[in-house]
Structures are given as structure tokens and as C-alpha cells.
């Protein structure tokens, strides 16, 4: 017969365990810093008519282009593109774990000449090995001081052996990207966007705290957490150890990122906001938040409108049903649609959001990034899951580029 004292202890432990199980979510929310977001705030641009999408052409060769940056001097768009079917198997920000039946993931980079309207796939040179994974995400470009013939291309790479920032050199007019540095650091773990500051220095956002495993599953299930993500500044100078440090306030889901002069713009895709930071005394690892703009929708990538310094923010006006899109990648833009919009935050109006373009999803479904070339008045919009991964839109004359 069981010892009464021991039985009482077991009953008490069972009762406590049952209570913890039934109240697990409440406990986790209270202890993990989960925040509640008012979803009505994220519907400001919902149910509006289309704007400035009347002259858009979808490219049908490049697929799943998550990010785009326009080199203003040459009116050339650079795009980080991929494989929709492969991204269902492995794309860290979408929760998927490594595929075991693929030898290598090899996604692509493209350029698009807006003057001649020609697309070119860029050939990669200097990769660490022939079977090195290339899974693209955020992208940025930077001029090389004193050399107008070349640029640097900074790209997030989600290799299965860990995230990295790839720094390529590109000679304008060619079809080659030459790898000059693969930057790895424990702080580059769930990389989303990258924004170059110098030839070997940059900011990144991590869109999750945990890259994978049971803790990542808990984060996806019970987040967003207020402390989970932030902006990191990394320096990877030649011959020196890579150094990364947190330089912003924490936020639930850091996403888009852009730099204009001494200002740094960081978007939060869960909270629908853009935080604006100033480099104190021009020092890139000393940021001071000076403003937070509610953009009224899920905010993705951020670009800078050339000549103005104003950020362009790509948003999902009706929200983003990621599980639905991942299950129907071949139907995106065909029978499954996700409206999208591009907002301009004008500095002269205290960064008040202004609608530049809106599409019901038939052309620019699930668009994650958009950039504008003022000289040709063309907008290039990119979608990270869609077959036919980017579209080029000739903007009407009533859209002010000044």
C-alpha cells in the first residue's frame, strides 16, 4: 500500500503540473514579454482602389525575388531572387527546417536595366565551395569611393550551416558578382535585411531571436515578444575579427532596414511601424531613436528614394497569410492574391505616410520590396514567393518624385 505522505506529495505535484499545463500560455506570455497588437491599426490602407499600377509588366523568368535595390546612377535594379518550391522546404523566416533531400540550394541574383528594359542573371564567382548554399533574402548596394565603374553588393544568405552576409564586388555593365567576403557572427542568426554603411560594415535586422529548434517553435507559437529582435551593427574589416553589437531598441519583429545620411530606418513587420534613428556624431554604432512612425500596415522592406532621402516602405494592406501562400506558391497572382502597397515617408511632413502605389494582388502579389528610379519614373516591385518574381511599373506623371 502506498505511503500516505508520499501519495499526498504525488497528488500535489500532479495538481500543480495540471495547473501549469492548463495555464501554460498565460504563464509564457507573462514571463516572456509577449505583446498584444491591435490588428485594426494594420488596416489603414485596406479596401482602397488601385493606385499607379496601370502600366506594370511582370517578368516571368526571375522568380521569388525578395528584395530589390536600384543603382540610381545607372538606372539598374539589382534583385535577390530564388526558387518558390525550394523556399517551401527551407526559408528560415518562414519557419521551415533544412531539407534533407537536396544536395544544394542555389538561388540567383539578377539585374534589370531600366533604360533598355533588359534582364540579366548575375554569375557568382569565388564561392567557398561548389555545393555552397545560396538562399537569398535582404540586399543592398554601395558605391566604391573613387571608382564609378564598380559597386559593392551586400546580400543576406540563409545557408543551412548558418546565416551570413555575402559582400560581392560588381563591375557595372558586366554579368559577374565576385565574392570578396563572407561575414559570419553569432549575432547574424535570423538575418532579414542588410544596409551597408561602409565597404566592410553594415547594419542587419534579425526577424527572430531563435534561429531553429524547439525554442524557435515556441517563439513562432507564442510570440511576438517585445525583446526578440533589434538592429545589429557589424564591422568586418580585412584582417580583423568580425564585431557585431546591438545598436537599437528591441522590437517584436525587426524587418526592413535602410540608411540615408545619418538616419537609419528600421521597420517592425508585426507592429506596423518604422523607427527612425540618428547616428550620434555620425558614429554608426551609436544610434538615438528620434521618431516612430505608425505606417498602418504590416511593414516589410524599406528603400530610399534617390535625390530626396525619403524612405519607401512596402506594406501588406490586408495582412499577410503566409501559411496560405506557402501552400499555394504556384497559384500566387493566378488564383491567390495578396494586395500590396508602397508608402513614401516624407521628411518635410514629419515622415507622414503617403500612398505611392497600390495593387489588388493581380500583378504584385505578396510584394516584399519596391524601389523607384526617379530618372525613368519606374518602380520595381519584388515578391519573395511568386513565380514571375518582379514587376516593373511606369509611374504616372501625377506621382511627385521631388
Automatic annotation (TrEMBL):
Keywords: Disulfide bond, Glycoprotein, Hydrolase. The keyword Hydrolase applies. SUPFAM superfamilies: Calcium-dependent phosphotriesterase. InterPro entries: 6-blade_b-propeller_TolB-like, Arylesterase, Serum_paraoxonase/arylesterase. Belongs to the paraoxonase family. This is Paraoxonase. It comes from Sporothrix eucalyptigena.
